[in-house]
Amino acid sequence: MLKQLTLAACAALSLVSLAADNDGWTPMFNGKDLxxxxxxxxxxGSYTVxxxxxxxxxxxxxxxxxxxxxxxxxxxxxxxxxxxxxxxxNSGIYIxxxxxxxxxxxxxxxxxxxxxxxxxxxxxxxxxxxKDVLNTAPVGDGEWFDYHIKVEGKHITISINGKVTxxxxxxxxxxxxxxxxxxxxxxxxxxTIAIQAHDPKSVVYYKDLFIKPLP
Length: 215
Prior knowledge:
The chain is mainly beta. The chain contains 2 helices and 15 strands. The chain has helices spanning 2-22, 176-179; strands at residues 26-27, 37-39, 47-50, 53-56, 61-65, 77-85, 90-97, 109-114, 122-127, 131-134, 145-152, 155-160, 163-169, 192-197, 204-213. The longest helix has 21 residues, at 2-22.
């Protein structure tokens, strides 16, 4: 009887520890396949799983997080992942976006992923065309780094390896149709996460993707 109680107590403690470790974070990628994600297949074969990571490459396409029930949607949240861009590569993480069968996503913001050698001057850690990190990427090519995004109300922060690279608040009455060129949907509302495959020469890896809804 005592042994059974001891085992039960250990199991309970393990569950408590697991809950504490998770701290509200939900895994978005199982490391094995693309369950919970949906590619628009604009360029077929742009997303594969390699060594426990999502490999992005081959041509323009977007991979949307749909979640286990197919309807994932977030307003206030934190997102974190490990990312590695290879030399000359470009990608992006879209937030508050929605399914689109082709083209650059019209809805939401793009958090830039762009290596040191890619010709686009807007580099990793910026909010594309809104609050850019220009010319020099905060991390090198071929190395894993931590990418963290937080959205609370109208406030967006992006951190790379724990250092804030973008801190931006969407102004009251923000009208992206007049503030930005050809980007009328760059506005906070709610939506899902999407990973961008940019061009045939760009290869980027994503793993350990988690999201935590906030009040």
